[in-house]
Amino acid sequence: MLWLRFLVFRMRNAREEFMGTESPYLMLDQLAMQPDHPDGGAAKLMLYWELRKEDQEGLVINLDATSVGRPMNEKRRFKLVGVVERDRVP
Q1: Cβ atoms 69, 43 nearer than 8 A
Q2: The model's pTM
Q3: CA distance 24 to 22
């Protein structure tokens, strides 16, 4: 489980680097999508809810995503600001 702690540490540091520590932001984490529903399905509904919340609150969103979900996310106003490589091999 040491690799998991290291991954969490790296993700937290990357989030602070990309989002900063001074301004509040919304965080969407662990959003999964079905490969046979490439346009999003339930994931798309969650993204739309988060985007509405972003507009209402005037905040930005941090979305941790995989390369699989990237095309769907980019269709919906998200842009890539950084990459954290994950190696699941301890």
Answers
A1: yes
A2: 0.62
A3: 7
